[in-house]
Amino acid sequence: MNGHAIAAIFRFEMARTMRTLLQSVASPVLSTALYFVVFGSAIGSRIQEVDGIGYGSFIVPGLIMLTVLTQSVSNASFGIYFPKFLGTIYELLSAPVSVAEILIGYVGAAAIKALAIGLIILGTAAFFVPLHIEHPVWMLAFLVLICVSFSLFGFILGIWARNFEQLQLVPLMIITPLGFLGGSFYSITMLPPVWQTVSLFNPVVYLVSAFRWSFFGTADVDVGLSLAMILLFLSACIAIIWWMFHTGYRLKT
Amino acid sequence: MAIAVSIQHLTKVYASGLTALRDVSLDIQEGEILALLGPNGAGKTTLISTVCGLTTPTSGTVTVGGHDIIRDFRASRRLVGLVPQELNIEPFERVQNTVRFSRGLFGYPDDPAHIEAVLRQLSLWDKRDTRILELSGGMKRRVIIAKALSHEPRVLFLDEPTAGVDVDLRKGMWEIVRALKNQGVTIILTTHYIDEAEAIADRVGVINNGQLLLVEDKATLMRRMGRKRLHIELNHPVDRVPEALDRYRLTRDDDGRSLLFDYDANSEAPDVAALLHDLKEAGLVLRDLHTSQSSLEEIFVTLVREEA
Question: Which of A203, A229, B196, B306 makes the best surface tag, with the fewest CB within 10 Å?
Fold first, then answer.
């Protein structure tokens, strides 16, 4: 195991974040505050409770999830896309590092950044609404799993993307819509039956549902099923990345 | 002398169908400077990229320090440093940090003393805390070399290290290469510039269309393939070459004030002594004599043209 390489990649990625600290931290905190103002206060005043939970508190897990998903994907995709774009990837590809070490370095850094932002949003939310976390260990476990899974997904995206447009396209056109339609601001049980069935094809539903369960003890879909879906997604991402490095897909000639 | 890099029957066919390397075999001795010469698209960069792990070989084997570059990639890559052709470098990093990053990436613990020595050797110590984007092109190139040297490689690949740099910087780069050789580092460099190979290489390889046309000791190559020309300056100009000297196929130059004699430098008996004797017999009085030898550039052009 090349521990020095993992540490070097990790430090480099964290230093990149520190250079853009304001953008990395202030922006999600600001947007969360705006969500609370718009959804919590304006819309929340018309929706009193969902599943017996005040609307303001109800949307907290969904809000965290929305930000964590986009942050994980963008952190990891930029992390590996920039070396490709700048040409500095030659160094990584010629170094004595394995796929696992590269992943621990890049994905680990991306996931930790997303996790930190998730926790900052949780802290921010506590200023606006009363918060009670029923299963704190599970809450943290789900948050870590989701950060890692979507950082892996972002890593795939960064290797796949040939230009900045492609890099932005997937988060904008897929992740954000799936996030909004994944029950971040509502319970899917509030939807007509047909749309409930359609929603089950949206992977974000499982993430939000499981995460919300860790807060309030109620879930739209079975928690075990949600966990299985997250683990399946994580395994699929690892398999794809292994294949990408094994074949040199869009990395080597 | 031990073999630092061994390339055996290496072939690379890209997905586009382009064959960049055709059955290339080459052994590079420890501690030597090998210059790979070849026109654009000859396969030089593909060869380097394959040894360094950036390009997957189609067939053939490569070992560095006896370690296979695929089966034993960790051991082989730790021995290798790569300086690519382009100035590929993270613009927002600081000089010292980016060099330390490279050392870590190659599996070595931080060693401030070594990093300082490398930066000093490359005259970058004063710029250690400067961000890369604030450096000149020449300095950026030196930073890339510093990154490649950060993990004390035994084999250094320099892909066109002096492409597009000014004369002073080129000479400076040659000094660095010579200093590294003195430290026992094996150096493989690709270049378009024949004078570069002529100035610093121990051996020269000529590559064209993916084929290694030859690899030879530089001096031997120049002796073997070099043509020599004897310039005979006369006291009194001549209107034509005397018939008695026909067998030497001399040509008049400088309005008859000089005669030129072309001969093979490797010929057993280049006939120079006989020619001088016959010149005297023919009544010609010599003012001066000097010889010139064809450069590596002429040899290279001849080789590539013959191959085409």
Answer: B306
